[in-house]
Design goal:
348 residues, alpha+beta, four-stranded mixed sheet, 8 helices
């Protein structure tokens, strides 16, 4: 019998709920960690059972990222807060060309959270980590009073290694470069909104949440002139392009007709009065490369399952104001400015 169990009983993962004893550091905490977290995140480093994980040092340059996840609702079409937590950190590492290796996770649990919901999230995280080929090697759990955490918050940090010769940086865009996206935009943001508002559409909209490190490795194999990568999460395509223009000291010209947006997402945006170019994405990336290699890179991306809808959407240009300009489908031009205010709360 596991010494952490209370009175010899296992956790009731079907009908039980988180209570404050699960965060008190005693037997209930140890039981929660052993029966729920450790059993699903099992690996040699986690089994050490120490206050830190000691892993072998990889070669190359180290990359590290951290992220907090407070999405509501916790479960949505195409994913949940667990898949989001793993894939979000994996993707932040991958955008620098890193091979993600290790993750940590901190869980803020609200008193009353159903254990069945927590189990579902943990299973999602374990599956996402396995798909991305990363190991969750250390973590922490805290419990707060009812009404203080909206169910569950997760903080993740990741460590990866950047191979020698790979240099992706948001400051490397140059006038004349091509701008490419890996597929349809706005899916995640609209999936969250439709679930939150309990709306059903004729064509179901699912989050694009996915780990992109495999796609990035594939791209690096096929394009020596890849300048930079960025995943357009909060603020969507528009905000991300503005960030890159500021970082590189350039401008961009985007062709509206070339930007891929699903008809269902576009129709839903018209219903809500939203612009799909500002919606969050969790499984898409923006790439900038030399114009001469753009067609070959886009073709290589289309050959990968996570890049099959890749499209060249514009070019980098010289601009002292660092503006992002869009040529509209009517032949006019408008600025894709920074997002003002809050478009969608709690989407990641």
């Amino acid at each position: 019998m596991n010494r952490a169990r209370i009175d010899g009983r296992r956790l009731n993962l079907r009908h039980g709920r988180i209570d404050l004893t699960h965060g008190a550091g005693g037997r209930a905490t140890a039981q929660l960690i052993d029966e729920l977290f450790a059993s699903h995140f099992d690996n040699v480093w986690l089994k050490q059972g120490n206050d830190q994980a000691i892993m072998p040092a990889p070669g190359g340059r180290l990359a590290m990222s951290t992220d907090c996840h407070v999405v509501t609702p916790l479960f949505f079409p195409g994913g949940d807060i667990g898949t989001l937590a793993v894939n979000g950190t994996v993707n932040d590492l991958a955008m620098g060309g890193a091979q993600p290796l290790y993750l940590s996770a901190g869980f803020i649990l609200e008193e009353g959270l159903p254990l069945a919901d927590l189990l579902r999230v943990v299973r999602s995280m374990a599956a996402a980590a396995q798909t991305a080929r990363v190991h969750l090697v250390t973590g922490d759990t805290k419990v707060v009073e009812r009404g203080k955490a909206d169910g569950l918050f997760i903080t993740t940090a990741g460590v990866g290694v950047v191979p020698d010769g790979v240099n992706l940086d948001g400051a490397r865009a140059r006038p004349g470069d091509a701008v490419i996206v890996s597929g349809y935009l706005g899916d995640h943001g609209m999936a969250i909104l439709s679930q939150r508002e309990a709306l059903g559409f004729d064509s179901p909209i699912e989050s694009d949440c996915a780990a992109l490190n495999g796609l990035v490795a594939h791209m690096l194999e096929h394009c020596a002139s890849l300048r930079l990568l960025r995943d357009p999460t909060r603020g969507g395509l528009a905000n991300t392009l503005n960030e890159l223009c500021q970082q590189s000291g350039v401008g961009m010209r985007i062709d509206e007709a070339a930007v891929p947006v699903r008809p269902a997402v576009r129709a839903a945006c018209e219903f809500f009065g939203l612009d799909p170019l500002y919606l969050a994405n969790e499984g898409k990336l923006i790439a900038v490369c030399a114009a001469a290699d753009a067609a070959a890179l886009a073709a290589a991306m289309c050959a990968h399952p996570l890049g099959r809808d890749a499209a060249i959407i514009g070019e980098v240009c010289a601009d002292d104001h660092n503006f992002v300009r869009m040529t509209t489908s009517f032949g006019g031009e408008r600025l894709m400015d920074w997002l003002h205010g809050e478009m969608l709360p709690r989407i990641c």
